[in-house]
Amino acid sequence: MTRRDFSERDIHMALDGELPVDERVAYDVWLDANPEMKARSARYVADRAALRAAFAGVLDEPVPARLQKIVFGEAPVKTVPMRSRWWLPAAAAAMLAIGGVGGYFAGIDHLGLEDPAEDQLAEQAIAAHVIYAAEQRHAVEVPASDKDHLQTWLSNRVGLKLVAPDLAAQGFQLVGGRLLPAGESKAAMLLYEDDKGERISLFVTAESAEKAKGTYESEENGPEAVYWLDKGYGCAVVGSLPRAQLTAVAKSAYSQLLAGLAS
Amino acid sequence: MDEKKAAILGEIPRLRRYARSLLRDRDSADDLVQDCLERALVRLDNWQTGESPRRWLFTIMHHLFIDQMRKVNRRGEAAMLPLEASEAQAAPAEQVESIASREIIDALQAMSPDRRAALVMVAIEGFSYAEAATILGVPAGTLMSRIARGRDELRGLLDDAARRRAIRIVEK
Q1: A141: exposed, middle or buried (C-beta count within 10 Å: 0-12, 13-18, 19+)?
Q2: For residues A32 and A24, what is the distance between their CA atoms, to the nearest angstrom?
């Protein structure tokens, strides 16, 4: 067995997990034989605990909206002109004329393929979904058990009359919701879960100047968004479901949201 | 792109904690995080796939912090900071700190920025020596001596604070 002399330097290394595994036993023996060093080590352990405790609360603080906004990429994105989408409103109008809500969604697959990839609403919705749908304990701010308050609160904040759609027919139950930044304004996020724990989210914002709809996938095999924009509101349904299932959920959510807005 | 942004978003709480330990004032700390996020988004392409978002973001923020410290030093503001910052600078009402937390935060602020960053990086943020040395851009030996001196200095500052507290209690 190799023996080496330890020094105060090793106290720091041991404390920081940098002491080689095969030296730890000998280090403990050395520490026990040197009361002064042992006291020093105990003091550093206590100071470290106090340091950590002093800043532990920061991790639980809500992230300031101004910081989230930067990541959602409003400022830099704005300077890049949106690719022209003159054909989208026309296409959407045609779909609506043909078959109401059903017809509207029937066209999604075709539109989705041609849709430019920089739709901000879909990107924001997917980014929010990636973050919050993965959270077990802090996925929502207001749980479904407080649904009335959730709807009133989000409606007031977003500036739309929001009714959380009932997606039980598609197998999804409301988990709850939260408020998020969306560019210059705010968005409501409603989270749903099925009995297997699969989650989808609904992202609704009152800010939209244009009419558009489509599907958007951020990454291969990543969650997908089915979205639509109309004058005065925008909505996206995000999830990692098969396209047909996601479209069915979106269709149901869309018609219920529309009915809610009009009520 | 979205996955990158989501990863960045997920690091914000830790960036805020690190910033708060570097800069006592809450708004200044969030300003530092904001500068860091802005720079990160502009340089999103520099972020190598496979590189930990945490290490990348902490490196960006550390550079910004050092720049800021240099500017402050030039203006001589750091020298004007009273040793007992807690007495001169009332903490905002929502920030309820225990005496122990206040003393340790004050002590941290009294340390040199280099030692403060090295110690916090390892003791609070849990980076390995190798990671912390890379982020701070110093050799491992320099990092180790900053940590050792930093811990020693912190201990002395805390002892001073405890002595002052004891004297104040006696005087009452």
Answers
A1: middle
A2: 12
CATH number at residue B58: 1.10.1740.10
CB contact at 8 A, B32 and B65: yes
Closest CA to B12 of A123, A54, A64, A137: A64
Domain-wise residue ranges, chain A: 8-58, 63-262
Average pLDDT score over residue span A208-235: 72
Separation between Cα atoms, residue A190 and residue A140, nearest integer Å:
8
CA B121, B125, B126, B130 torsion-angle sign: negative
Q: Which 96-125 residues of chain A touch chain B by CB within 8 A? A: 123
**Reported confidence tier of residue B75, pLDDT bands at 50, 70, 90:** low
HEC assignment per residue over A108-119 = HHHHHHHCCCCC
pLDDT of residue A135: 83
Task: Note the ipTM here.
Answer: 0.85
Q: How far is the C-alpha of B69 from the C-alpha of B77, rounded, in Å?
A: 10
Q: What is the mean pLDDT of chain A?
A: 78
Q: What residues of chain A, 204 to 223, have a C-beta less than 8 Å from chain B?
A: 218-219, 222
Contacts of A203 (CB under 8 A, 6+ apart): A121, A124, A125, A128, A129, A180, A182, A187, A188, A189, A225, A235, A236, A237, A238
Domain A63-262 coded CATH 3.40.1180.10: no
> At residue A80, does pLDDT exceed 90?
no
Structure tokens at B60: 């960006």
Instruction: Report if residue B64 sits inside a domain.
Output: yes
A to B CB pairs, distance under 8 Å: 109
Nearest CA-CA distance, residue A99 and chain B, Å: 34
DSSP B67: H
Taking contacts as CB-CB distances below 8 angstroms, the residues of chain A near B129 are: 16, 18
User: In this complex, which of A9, A55, A71 lies closest to B5 when CB atoms are compared?
Assistant: A71
- CA A182 – CA A203 distance, rounded (Å): 10
Whether pLDDT at B93 is above 60: no
Task: Please classify residue A32 by burial: count the beta carbons closer than 10 Å to its beta carbon, then call 0-12 exposed, 13-18 middle and 19+ buried.
Answer: exposed
Chosen domain end from B82, B110, B131:
B82
- Overall average pLDDT of the A190-194 stretch: 94
